[in-house]
Structure formats: C-alpha cells, structure tokens
Amino acid sequence: MANGTMAPERVKTILFEPTPRRLRVEVEKTVVADTIRGMILIESGHLPVYYFPRADVRFDLLEESSRTTHCPYKGEAAYWHLILGARKIEDAVWGYPRPVATAPGYEPPQGPTAESLSEYVAFYWNKVDHWYEEDEEVFVHPRNPYKRVDAIASRRRVEVIIGGEMVATSTNAIFLFETGVPVRYYLPREDVRPSVLQSSETHSRCPYKGIASYHRVVVNGKDYGDLAWYYPDPLQEAYRIKDRIAFYNEKVDAIKIEGIEQPKP
C-alpha cells in the first residue's frame, strides 16, 4: 500500500454446528441418509453444506473412490461413489477423515472442533434426487439459519421502466428483503401492463421462496427475455409474494421509489 503498511489478511470463517432439523437424502426412491443429528457447515464464500453422521448414512451403498482434493482449511477430502442397482453416481459423497485444525487466516469453527468433521460426510446436492428437511422437500442448497427473508408491505410508489416506458407502477407492493440479495419489489399483477408480459417456459428454484415461473417482457416489439418472475405457490414463509410480479433491478432501465431512481445492484 502507499503508506507502506500491509493490507489486513482476510479471515476465513467456518461455522460447524448442529441443526435441529431432520434431514433426508433420497435416490431412486431409496433413503440413503436420514438423521436427526445432522450438522450444517457455513463457510464464508460458499453455500451452506449439510453433514451427516456416518452411522446415519447407507455406507452399504457406497464404494470408495480414488479421488482426493485438498482444502487448506479442512484438510484432505476422501470421496465415495453411490451405487443403487445399475445406477452409479460417481464421487457423490465426500468427507474429511483427518481434518486440519488450523490454517493461515483461519478462524476456528464456532461449535464442535475441526476434528469432529471426521465423523461426518456430505452429499453433492445436485447428484442426488431429493432432499428433505423434516417432511418438506428443499431445493438448490440448505437454508442458512443466519439468512433472513422478510416480505414487508409498503405504500411507497414503485415504478418500473423498460425500453424507456413505464411498464408498472404500484403503491401496493411487497418489498422483499433477503440477506445478500438486492431488494426485490413484488407488484400486484393488475399494476403491471398486461401487454408487456408474455409466456415463458422458464422456472427456477429458491430454498427460501419455492419454485418461480417467468414472463418474457416485450416492450414496443422488443423482447427483453425473462425479465420478470412470480411464485404461483411460494413457501409459507414467503406467502405474501404469491402471484405478484417482480423485475430484475439490474436489467431494467430503472426502478424508482417515490420518484427516486434506485442504484443498480
């Protein structure tokens, strides 16, 4: 740096702590892991990961893999293939038989020590068929217990401008505040110009809100693609946004709140 001092080293934080939720993993209609003693690993810069006690995993369906990888914060990872009948899912499971306890820039886990990681294994989310927390299926990745999703009603006027035209305006929006994500503004469908919304086959999944459907947005003959979405059947925690339309803040010309243009994410 210009003054001759060193920039502070970024600290790596890893939380490895119990989760009270029953966790299940299913492949080919077979439950391959089922626990009420699971752990969640929350590592800065990564999505959360569920870890299962070895005793609660169907190791009779696993075959050791020759693959290994190295993490400076957790150690050498071992891998297993998952085999069910004729189906072999390569390197579907991993664990740290001899995890490291310390590393440069590492802040020790809050909760069990790093060594306890050796008693657990994890599954690649997208290599198995279904994940369940209690009796509800969850998608994409584990829900982070330190993340909030708040759907709050607001009478502030929201205006959405695309292609130089105002395509939506509302004083009856739901503002969705989600940790680490730009504020999204969910508008009643009747407050959006119906002519700009075209059908789309696109869908996406969110572990906090559910399955989203999309609309292509067409303004004055120009197709802007899947710029708007809605949740026809959101999870209960986000039920207030049901069937409301949201637009990508970062892709529209502008979103204005009470006439003030909002910074793009």
TrEMBL record:
Residues 24-125, 158-250 form the DUF427 domain. It comes from the Bacteria. Gene3D superfamilies: Domain of unknown function (DUF427). Transmembrane segments: none annotated. Pfam families: NTP_transf_9 (PF04248). InterPro entries: DUF427, DUF427_sf. PANTHER family: BLR5716 PROTEIN, DUF427 DOMAIN PROTEIN (AFU_ORTHOLOGUE AFUA_3G02220). This is DUF427 domain-containing protein. It comes from Dongia soli. The lineage of its organism: Bacteria, Pseudomonadati, Pseudomonadota, Alphaproteobacteria, Rhodospirillales.
